[in-house]
Amino acid sequence: MDTLVSIRVFCTVAELKSFTAAAERLGVSPAMASKHVMHLEERLSARLLNRTSRHVSLTETGALYFEQARQMVDGLDEVEAAVSQTVVAPKGRLRLSAPVWMANPLFASLLADFRARYPDVTLEIDLSGRLVNLVEEGFDLALRVTASPDPGLIARTIADAPFYFVASRKLLDGRGHAADFDDLAGAPLLAYSFVHADGVVTVGPGQQRRTIKFTPVLQTGNETLMHAACLEGMGFAFLPKWLVSDDLAAGRLERVLPEKMFFAGKLLAVYPSRKYLSVKVRSFLDFIVRDPRLK
User: Fold this and answer.
1) Please, what is the average pLDDT of the chain?
2) Residue partners of 53: CB distance under 8 A and separation at least 6
3) % helix / strand / coil in the chain, to the nearest 5?
């Protein structure tokens, strides 16, 4: 049995998490796809996939093998194209994990334009908000706002992603506009569960740092819900610029102490530490880095 073909089959099964789906994509029977994977496992004397009647997942060994094998297969495709003097166009499924709040018109328009330019790429976007394991779960890359990316991953800065401290006009008319930090003590806060669940917020650089104790009235890890609750006047919130820019322009929300209350986040693209990036991933990264809508 051709080992290279078996590697291609294994990578497709690992990516789709299904022998049947992989077989359909590759034009072989599910039984033949299974034989190819078994051939690899026998050759390596290691189990690569956990199989149940409904689910296929990578073993720890399989995840390590998949990372290297996918890199090799993608590289071989490009080498073959270069030798035959054909243009390598991005194609295939691009699996991307991103924050919940990127379910917004701006990001949707960016994805639509990328798809129009590269029609052979199918986008699969996970907006669950969970911290996915890129290798084990078969993701190509993730977009994250973090100051400390996983040291086992490569991180590339995409754009500034500031979080503004905002409130609805309804809330501000009722409480009054804050002139300083002291005016915010005890104010209702829509708290992001993973950062400000206790209502304590620290802002400012160096010796200018101040800690404010709010009253958390809603705790959630979903920025979309925070946004909706903020519009309803339920409380103050730190929300990403991309999510609230239209509301600020329309006057539905206002920034509070804009010179002091904000977080200067950066949107990073993170992907497995490997020397080679597939054409589809590299094309997507270059596209979003250059797009003026994210500036």
Assistant:
1) 86
2) none
3) 40, 25, 35
Q: Cβ distance 255 to 166 under 8 Å?
A: yes
Whole-angstrom distance, CA of residue 89 vs CA of residue 76: 14
CA 258/CA 254 separation, integer angstroms: 9
Q: What is the pTM of this model?
A: 0.69
Return the pLDDT at 116.
Answer: 95
Q: Is 206 left (phi over 0), alpha (psi -120 to 50) or beta?
A: left
Predicted confidence (pLDDT) per residue in 45-100, tens digit: 989 998 876 778 888 888 888 878 877 877 776 666 555 555 567 888 899 999 99
Of the candidate CATH numbers 1.20.1260.10, 3.30.70.120, 3.60.21.10, 1.10.10.10, the domain formed by 3-83 belongs to: 1.10.10.10
Fold of 163-263: D-Maltodextrin-Binding Protein; domain 2 (3.40.190)
Give residue 267's Cα distance to chain centre. Answer: 10
Domain residue spans in the chain?
3-83, 92-159+266-294, 163-263
Residue 89 has what pLDDT? 75
Residue 96 has a pLDDT of 93
Task: Collect the ranges in the chain with pLDDT lower than 50.
Answer: none
The DSSP symbol for 258 reads T
- Give the integer Cα–Cα distance in Å for 9 and 275: 22
Domain 92-159+266-294, CATH homologous superfamily name and number: Periplasmic binding protein-like II (3.40.190.10)
What does each C-alpha distance from 168 to 85, 114, 138, 141, 238 come to in angstroms? 58, 34, 40, 35, 12
CB 106 within 8 A of CB 293: yes
Residue 7 carries which side chain, given as an amino acid letter?
A: I
